[in-house]
Amino acid sequence: xxxxxxxxxxxxxxxxxxxxxxxxxxxxxxxARPLPPxxxxxxxxxxxxxxxxxxxxxxxxxxxxxxxxxxxRAAYEAAVRHRPDVILxxxxxxxxxxxxxxxHLVRLAPVMMLTYSRESEIVREALRLGAGGYLVHGEFTADxxxxxxxxxxxxxxxxxxxxxNALLAHVRGQPDPEPANSGESxxxxxxxxxxxxxxxxxxxxxxxxxxxxxxxxxxxxxxxxAGMNNQHIAATCFISEKTVKNHINRIFAKLGATTRxxxxxxxxxxxxxx
Length: 274
Known about the structure:
alpha/beta; six-stranded parallel beta sheet; 6 strands; elongated
């Protein structure tokens, strides 16, 4: 499905494994040992949604649901207890919501946002706080969900169309596809996120001319300023992480920066270009 990055598929054989498989002490040639099942914690306050996800994932031979939780606090307790491989996390929940719990959960396991929340600000904030992907209900099939979950083992990010479009609209300075409720407040948004789309667009154009960046380099720099890591940038721009690194090297050279923080400071105008 467009917008959902499922990676490069099943990895090929290990070239270092030799002709007799990865275990040189086995004595006989044979198939490689299968990976242990992926252990998942499912976090959603809606018991119907939670039960459906559990039933779907339990039906896969290589996935095991280790625990369920109905809010962020219970999710953290379950993650500490079960040490899962992946956490599927809703956004809006009572007591402790998903965004509040996210910075604590990512220290324990990779987190995939799996939610009905499609507001652009929430998508960006979730990624800034460490989410490894963002899937919106109704935009993926069962097979696409399981492929995305499996991809988390290899560190592959996954986004459905709404999440991808929200990020691209932000980078390109266009109005958000679906603005968040004006009464809703998200903590710790970085200045570049809080700026108006008109202000972002003007700043980006001025910086692109001043630092002589290409359109792609300016796009990558906007994503860096939004707090995204190389993996998220690659998924958003549909390019490889190696290409992202090449762009970043050129950007840093043009901005006269050696670190992300220095590049962001110069891009946002709080430090002068050397």
